[in-house]
Amino acid sequence: MSIIALALAGGMGAQTMEAVFTGMPDSYIPQLENAWRKDLVDLYRAGKEAKLKNVMEGYSSLEQLNDTYLRLRTTTRSVVEMKLLPLVNNTSVICMVTTVEGPVADSRLAFYTTDWQPLPLDDLIEPLAGEWYLKTDAPADQLDDARALLDMDLIRYDLHADNLTLTATYTTPLYLSEEDRERVEPCLAAPVVYEWRRAHFERKR
């Protein structure tokens, strides 16, 4: 079944990000129960510091919220971003990015209906392996050296509050020593930018 068909069958009607955030299952952000999420929204709407102690004895803060976008710092080293992405007939899907920021930022990407049913990732975006973040026109010996050093795929995803783009930044080089980073730098391509079109993310380059 296509994503659009799932939208129509699953009742993914128009909602605001506030409603999606306060109505999400506790399991998706275990640091914050439903009542605390509502309190954060109330504080944010009142123009106050939207920061509360969470169940992990740390603090969570709502940093940005509009009708379609949310940025929540769940802990000192983790951030959740959510974006409502339009489909057809006034329906939407949720894109959720969870980023752990230490020692190097790495993200997990997921999609849901607005009643929080998981959607297949591969139907909505083509994630790229680390090889794609290397320049194909770099000298062969430098590329071979870079591939040997870049032996894992760490990628940070960033949603944007004011548009329908998603930026993927290859962060594995930040895991290397300064000397090795300098060796791989000439081989690194620019971050990848995706744009939401026709019910899925497409690469802009």
Question: How are the SSEs placed, and which strands pair?
Answer:
Blueprint (H helix, E strand, L loop, with lengths): L2 H8 L6 H7 L10 H12 L5 E3 L5 E7 L3 E7 L2 E9 L5 E9 L5 E7 L5 E2 L20 H10 L5 E5 L5 E6 L7 H7 L7 E6 L2 E4 L2
Antiparallel strand pairs: 1-2, 2-3, 3-4, 4-5, 5-6, 6-7, 8-9, 9-10, 10-11
Summed up:
By secondary structure, this protein is an alpha+beta fold. The chain has five helices and eleven strands, in the order αααβββββββαββαββ.
How would you portray this structure in words?
It is a single chain. With 205 residues, the chain is α+β, with helices and mostly antiparallel strands. The protein has helices spanning 3-10, 17-23, 34-45, 140-149, 178-184, and strands spanning 51-53, 59-65, 69-75, 78-86, 92-100, 106-112, 118-119, 155-159, 165-170, 192-197, 200-203. It is built from 5 helices and 11 strands. Strand 2 (59-65) and strand 3 form a beta hairpin. The two termini are 28 Å apart.
Question: What key phrases describe this protein's structure?
Answer:
4-stranded antiparallel sheet; alpha+beta; 205 residues; 7-stranded antiparallel sheet
Helix fraction, binned, reads 10-25%
Pairing-aware structural class of the strands and helices?
alpha+beta
What is the total tally of β strands? 11
Which value, in Å, is the CA radius of gyration?
19 Å
Total helices: the number is: 5
Spatial shape: globular
* Beta-strand percent range: 25-35%
